[in-house]
Automatic annotation (TrEMBL):
Official protein name in the record: tRNA dimethylallyltransferase
Chain intervals for the UniProt region annotation (Interaction with substrate tRNA): 37-40, 161-165
Record keyword Transferase present: yes
Any GO MF annotation of the entry: tRNA dimethylallyltransferase activity
Gene it is expressed from: miaA
Quaternary organization: Monomer.
Binding site for substrate: T14, A15, V16, G17, K18, T19
Catalytic activity field: adenosine(37) in tRNA + dimethylallyl diphosphate = N(6)-dimethylallyladenosine(37) in tRNA + diphosphate
Length: 302
């Protein structure tokens, strides 16, 4: 291992302050940031994914933001391949690189890689897609809660593609999806330190609610409206867009849609924390009260 190269992971739930923390660290180490937010890759989705502002993007070089289109098939395996290749290049120039985001699966891909999931008969996926159309996402949520409670507790349950992927593995193999994610860690040619950001729950939830209000003020409704032709794309089956598509379909009113975005985002943050709390390598910090530069320097010197 080339022990003088280090990847600093900045993880945590949505709205906790990862972008500001990553930029502070990037400036301190005179380095760059890789985004590990599975929705910020897509250039068509900006307001609803809380991308860094133009000023923030100018303050530190970011990779994997606006890097792909929602019409491209870009999954976690692609991210692992492209991310490791990019890190190989970046570590020729920098001793430290920052990986920041809230997508636990994508962080895991870069830090550890995963098991090869079994191939499953396509008929199973087709049947699950029919069930989704006929019975709705709540039906798939209930099935997954019974089949694989561990994965259910941490997956984004409002993303039907994630639910279907887990259910097809379970139905095709008889083993829960979560049992395939216990791969022996692949050794990476760099050191990894992980900083997790969290806040008292009430404070975090207030920040989430305020962020949703800002998104609405900045034009999230118009952004979602422009994306209606692409609504079946996997990238858009996510909090912030699902609820507005229901509003456009007259299934709900605007006030209810906004309240549901807030509620579902709070639930999503809880699931992110469930995921990250299982990672015993994470050192937790409060971004409002802790000195993250001092913490990071200390972790790097260990």
């Amino acid at each position: 291992m080339n022990s003088n190269k280090t990847l600093i992971v900045v993880a945590g739930p949505t709205a906790v302050g990862k972008t500001a923390a990553a930029i502070k660290l990037a400036k301190h180490y005179n380095t760059v940031i890789l985004s590990a937010d599975s929705r910020q890759f897509f250039k068509e989705m900006s307001i609803g994914t809380a991308k860094p502002s133009p000023d923030e993007l100018a303050a530190a070089k970011h990779y994997f933001i606006d890097s792909h289109s929602i019409t491209e098939n870009f999954n976690v395996g692609d991210f692992e391949t492209e991310g490791l290749k990019l890190l190989d290049e970046l570590f020729k120039v920098h001793d430290v690189v920052i990986l920041a985001g809230g997508s636990g699966l994508y962080i895991k891909a870069i830090c550890e890689g995963f098991d090869n999931l079994p191939t499953v008969e396509p008929e199973i996926r087709e049947r699950l897609n029919i069930e989704l159309t006929e019975k709705g996402v709540a039906h798939l949520q209930q099935k997954l809660a019974v089949a694989d409670p561990e994965y259910y507790s941490e997956v984004d349950i409002y993303n039907p593609q994630r639910l279907i992927r887990a259910l097809e593995v379970f139905e095709g193999t008889g083993k829960p999806f979560s049992s395939y994610r216990t791969a022996s860690t692949r050794q990476r040619p760099f050191n990894i330190v992980k900083i997790g950001l969290n806040l008292p729950r009430e404070q975090l939830y207030n920040r989430i609610n305020e962020r949703v209000d800002v998104m609405i003020a900045e034009g999230l409704v118009k952004e979602a409206e422009n994306l209606i032709p692409y609504r079946e794309v996997n990238a858009l089956k996510t909090v912030g867009y699902n609820e507005l598509f229901d509003y456009f379909d007259d299934k709900t009113d605007m006030h209810t849609a906004i309240e549901l975005i807030k509620q579902h985002t709070r639930q999503f943050a809880k699931r992110q924390l469930t995921w990250f709390n299982k990672d015993k390598e994470i050192v937790w910090a409060n971004p409002c009260t802790d000195n993250l530069v001092e913490l990071s320097d200390r972790l790097l010197s260990q």
